[in-house]
């Protein structure tokens, strides 16, 4: 049986837009399992990013419970949430947020040094991860502006992995990349997942979504259905068709 890593119960998130309250998440329930590559889909504005930020402790829910293993993080203050994120989570965004004034290696080490002071060990791990995502030594001392979009996103993935997070959250990680770079980044993420990394990703894109083994569909602030796709197999047309049929049924 799959082990649950994260569970949210009766999750609500509302924003006040002037005198009007907008209820984005409405008593939403969700479970995330260890080792899964979970994708959250839904139409624009359905609350996907809001859900991702609440689940990952980047933002606080208005109401509801979020349980990370045996820890209830829903009532944590900002300091405790920051510690939680640093200890357990890795983040990959559409905008890479690399520091332009630092080399590739320093961008990664700065994240690692928040957790350990063993610089030598960190550097070794960073080198291993950079190699694993297909970036060679030539890249280590480059600055972000000297990288292609795909290379920069792979650096961001290494930075997300440097502290061995139990779970990686990704918000449209390929949204700003051309098709080839997007495929490279997705290959890295698929490989990470095949090695056991739990991933929760938000995307609009079917090509990206079909890498996941579990697709959740968000509508009007709740998860209305899910699809189990099994582990990704390259070139599997049936998988693509199954996902398309599911999304059509959802009214996507
Ligand atoms: N900080 C905020 N303040 C007020 N409203 C917000 C805030 N963040 C999000 N919203 C609103 O909540 C709704 C859901 O936003 P969210 O970004 O979660 O949707 P999404 O499904 O990720 O959309 P998209 O696919 O277009 O990125 C939107 O109507 C948005 O305007």
From TrEMBL:
- Where the record annotates domain ABC transporter, the positions are 6-245
For this UniProt entry, what's an example GO CC term?
membrane protein complex
Question: Which Pfam families does the UniProt entry name for this protein?
Answer: ABC_tran (PF00005)
* Gene3D superfamilies assigned to the protein according to its UniProt record, in alphabetical order: P-loop containing nucleotide triphosphate hydrolases
Taxonomy, superkingdom: Bacteria
Q: Which InterPro entries match?
A: AAA+_ATPase, ABC_transporter-like_ATP-bd, ABC_transporter-like_CS, MacB-like_ATP-bd, P-loop_NTPase
Q: Which residues, by range, are in coiled-coil regions?
A: none
Q: What SUPFAM superfamilies would the database entry show?
A: P-loop containing nucleoside triphosphate hydrolases
Q: Keywords in UniProt for this one?
A: ATP-binding, Nucleotide-binding, Transport
Q: Molecular function terms in GO for this entry? A: ATP binding; ATP hydrolysis activity; transmembrane transporter activity
Please indicate if the UniProt record lists Ubl conjugation as a keyword.
no
Kindly give the PANTHER family that the UniProt entry links to this protein: ALPHA-D-RIBOSE 1-METHYLPHOSPHONATE 5-TRIPHOSPHATE SYNTHASE SUBUNIT PHNL, LIPOPROTEIN-RELEASING SYSTEM ATP-BINDING PROTEIN LOLD
Family statement drawn from the similarity comment of this UniProt entry: Belongs to the ABC transporter superfamily.
The protein, known as = ABC transporter ATP-binding protein
């Amino acid at each position: 049986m799959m082990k649950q890593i994260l569970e949210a119960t009766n999750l609500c998130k509302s924003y006040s837009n002037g005198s009007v309250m907008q209820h984005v998440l409405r008593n939403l329930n969700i479970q995330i399992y260890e080792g899964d590559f979970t994708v959250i889909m839904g139409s624009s504005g359905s609350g996907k990013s809001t859900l991702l930020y609440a689940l990952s402790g980047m933002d606080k829910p208005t109401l509801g419970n979020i349980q990370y293993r045996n820890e209830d993080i829903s009532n944590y203050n900002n300091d405790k949430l920051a510690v939680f994120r640093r200890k357990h989570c890795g983040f990959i965004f559409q905008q890479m947020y690399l520091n332009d004034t630092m080399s590739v290696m320093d961008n990664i080490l700065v994240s690692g040094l928040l957790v350990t002071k063993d610089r030598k060990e960190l550097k070794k791990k960073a080198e291993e991860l950079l190699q694993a995502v297909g970036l060679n030594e030539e890249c280590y001392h480059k600055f972000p502006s000297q990288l292609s979009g795909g290379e920069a996103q792979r650096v961001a993935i290494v930075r997300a992995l440097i502290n061995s997070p139990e779970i990686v959250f990704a918000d449209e990680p390929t949204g700003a990349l051309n098709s080839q770079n997007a495929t490279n980044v997705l290959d890295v993420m698929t490989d990470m997942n095949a090695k056991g990394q739990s991933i929760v990703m938000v995307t609009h894109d079917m090509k990206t979504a079909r890498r996941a083994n579990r697709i959740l569909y968000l509508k009007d602030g709740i998860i209305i259905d899910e699809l189990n796709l099994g582990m990704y197999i390259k070139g599997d047309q049936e998988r693509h068709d199954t996902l398309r049929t599911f999304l059509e049924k959802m009214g996507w």
